[in-house]
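pasting for the record
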Amino acid sequence: MATATVCRSSSKKALLTLLLLDLDDTLLGNHMDSFIPAYLRGLSSRLASLADPQHMVEALLKATDHMVADTNPALTLEEKFDSVFFPALHLQRPAAQHLIDTFYRDDFPFLAALTVVKPAAASLVQQALARGYQVAIATNPLFPRTAILQRIAWAGLPPDQLPLALIPSYETFHFAKPNPAYFAEFLAQLGWPEGPVMMVGDDPRMDILPARQLGLPVFWVAEPAAPWPGPGPEPPRGGLSDLLPWLDAQPDAALLPDFSHPLSQQAILRATPAALSTLLAGHPAHVLLRQPAPGEWSPTEVLCHLRDVEREVNLPRLRTILASPNPFIPGQDTDPWALERAYQLQDCLEAQSDFLDARLELLALLAALSEADWERSARHAIFGPTRLAELVNIIAGHDRLHVRQVLQGLPTPVHD
């Protein structure tokens, strides 16, 4: 059994860049078997003047399932939910918005009585922040932001008083747990922090396994006697108070993510256009044209670069490898295109849309690959002998680099 190794006498402090913490039943005692029925009763009662409560509950559950299952990076979870929920009730969102807002303002707070504060949660967050870690709440973003902020506060972690790096919600996220693209989108919205990262959660299926699929180190918040359901080896486990001592006992290299697996790469590639949509939203054109420093690209130039590389380099290369045995792949210097094609004179959001279309083509191509296809060989003018899997890994790394570049070119976001 892989239990947490605790060295409380150690003076070493783990060099962690980012700590991702699940909320429900990790930081906040909240058994969904009691919470969700009460939530559904409250919301259906508030909307009873517009829809039969039983019908409303059925529509909400169906829309929630759709949010989780739909992997389209072009739509937020809110848009996915709305596309199923309101048509099922023959409603438009504006007709119900006032009642929904009233529910979350006046009724939702009473659900706090169904939750339990975990004193170790606030202590863990405060100690982690004191160490200089970035701390983010990696909860499943199936609720509006107001509901998530309230639940974080119920855990004794008032969001307006803590420098939390990111709080996801269905307005700003495109994927939900247990999709590993959720974790990729999370890191992308933070600019792909470099260095050790750790995901901490109580649910093997929703937290541990998908985080592992992306390539993140994990810590399972579980009782010593809880059986590990698998698959894969049992992760390190313990209570919240065990986490920091366990971290201090680990070599720093053990806390580094590994994004080399094809599942990781596809999650990253799917998350990139989604995260860019959130990062770029609401910024006026002059901000998207701002170059951080002389010679550095603006967000607009980055998006044009991603679009053209996807259409003219990535897709043709992969198609060539799939069409021919061990083909020769020429190198291409795409950096001069920024000036040659006058990227600064182009529309950033149009480039974003075109990049999304090209990326969906690439994702469809990858989804159809067999295991043997991933091993197909090629001869690259710069890299030498290579495989399709290695080239996809390079594309994913290229994504991470340029998402980071876009975020560096935007005004500093405020995450409450």
